[in-house]
Structure formats: C-alpha cells, structure tokens
Design brief:
48% of the residues lie in helices and 13% in strands. It is an alpha+beta fold. It binds flavin mononucleotide.
C-alpha cells in the first residue's frame, strides 16, 4: 500500500461518489491515456476460476464510432462519446483459457493442491473442461444438472453447471471488469456510461465477432459536461436491500 488506510478509504469514497452515468461529454477535453490505463486495470479484475473469458474492444475511429452509436440507438451518451469500449463475454474461449491457466500453474506452482485438495492442474485439465464443454442441444448440461442434483441430495453441490450457467458466469466476470474500468476512469479524471441498449447482432457484426461471443456492455468514455448528469442520484434505501443474517 502506498498511502495510509484513511487516505485510501477517502480516495475510494470519492471515486465511487463521483462516478455517474454521463450522457453528454465534453467535445474539447479528453485524454485517451485514461482509457489505456483503465483497460490495464480492468484486466486485473477477478474472474471465475481466473478463466478471463472476456475481451475489450476499443472503438475510436470516427466512422466506427458513428456506426456503433447508431447500433446503440443513437443515445446521447454514445453520440457525444470520445471513445467507446465494448466489453465482450467469450464463453467459447474456455479451451484456450483453461490451457493458459494450466500452463501457468505447471510452470509456477507444480502439482500442489490448490482447490480443496484438488491439484490446480487437474482443476484446469479435467474439471474446467467437464464444466465448460457443452453441446448445442444441451444434453451434456442436462446430464450435469441431474448429476449435481443427485449429489446435492447428500452434500452441498454447485448447481450452475449447464451451458446457460456458463454464459452467465462469463458475463458476471466481464461486468466486474467493466466496473473496474469505470471506476478507474474516474480516478483518471474522466467519465463513462455503461450502455446495454444496443443491437447486439449489429454490434457483433461491426466487431467481426464469432457467433458464440456475446456483448456484455458498451462503455462510453469522455469528460462530463454539467448537463451530462441527468439529475440527483436515486437509490433504494440501504436498509431495504441489505439484510443482516
Ligand atoms: C448494465 C447497465 C446498462 C445500462 N444501460 C444504459 C443505457 O443503455 N443507456 C443509458 O443512458 N444508461 C444506461 N445505464 C446507466 C444507468 O441508467 C445508471 O447507471 C443508473 O441510472 C444509475 O445512475 P448512476 O450510474 O449515475 O449512479 C446502464 C447501467 C448498467 C449498469
């Protein structure tokens, strides 16, 4: 830690309070280095089993920006953005990612137990393929759900094991990277807006993505204009959403 805890807490509080969904960006003030830095930080976000089933597409050429904004329904935030980042979930890359993890573990850790007595090598070499390998008809997923249900009768068991579950897993991790990116942009004196109002078919085509890639969200980037904040923040009271158990 390079600052004391109090300073760190105050800095983070300030970042969280400052981040807003910005719908109008300043046309005259922008530093793309903020995006470069923030992408490097987003890349450090946690991901399920460290599988990193995500990709970040940096859209900054005027033609592509225009097209992307059209596919985001011409929203104010996309029309005025200085750059846009498309966060893409890639559940289909599981084989490559499991292998990268396997190779990393082999080089750096050997075959030591890492996950509840299971060696990290068998985790990435056997368990991940078993979990992520799903067929288009969902037959494997159905069998896995049945097996999980039977095992679950006797002991706690992970139930999210079919193809849809795996897609959700990839989106959860991608969204954590997205949030890391947005908070970092504030730390760099910039602003963002997450966008999910888009035509995913057209956005995928624009980015030349394969069929199984999925758009997680588009993030607009820039520096806010005062009128780019649409109003005071609204949140459901904390005591209505936090439940001490
Ligand atoms: C997944 C997601 C999708 C969103 N999609 C849009 C969008 O398409 N257009 C938009 O203007 N804002 C969008 N927002 C921004 C929210 O409306 C905004 O975060 C919310 O109103 C809370 O405001 P705040 O971020 O300023 O605290 C999205 C936010 C999230 C998390």
């Amino acid at each position: 830690m390079i600052v004391d805890e109090k300073t760190q807490s105050e800095c983070f509080e300030n970042i969280v309070q400052t981040r807003r969904a910005v719908r109008k960006f300043n046309p005259d003030d922008y530093n793309p280095d903020a995006v470069t830095k923030s992408l490097a930080r987003a890349h450090l976000a946690p991901s399920s089993s460290n599988m990193q089933l995500w990709e970040f597409y940096r859209v900054s050429s005027p033609n592509k920006m225009k097209e992307l904004s059209r596919y985001c329904m011409g929203q104010n935030t996309t029309e005025t953005a200085r750059e846009m980042i498309v966060i893409v979930a890639r559940p289909d890359l599981w084989r490559q990612r499991a292998k990268s993890n396997y190779d990393f573990v082999k080089t750096n850790l050997g075959d030591r137990p890492a996950f509840k007595g299971r060696s990290a090598l068998s985790y990435y070499g056997k368990l991940m393929p078993m979990l992520y390998n799903n067929d288009i008809l969902g037959i494997r997923g159905g069998i896995k759900m049945l097996v999980a249900w039977v095992i679950g009768l006797k002991r706690p068991m992970v139930r999210q094991v079919n193809g849809t579950d795996i897609r959700i897993v990839a989106h959860k991790s991608a969204a954590l990277a997205a949030q890391t990116f947005m908070l970092s942009m504030v730390a760099e004196g910039h602003d963002t807006c997450p966008v999910e109002g888009f035509d995913s078919v057209r956005v995928k085509k624009l980015l030349q993505l394969p069929r199984k890639a999925e758009i997680n969200m588009v993030i607009t980037c820039g520096k806010r204009m005062p009128e780019g904040i649409y109003g005071p923040r609204f949140r459901i009271p904390l005591d209505e959403v936090v439940f001490p158990i």
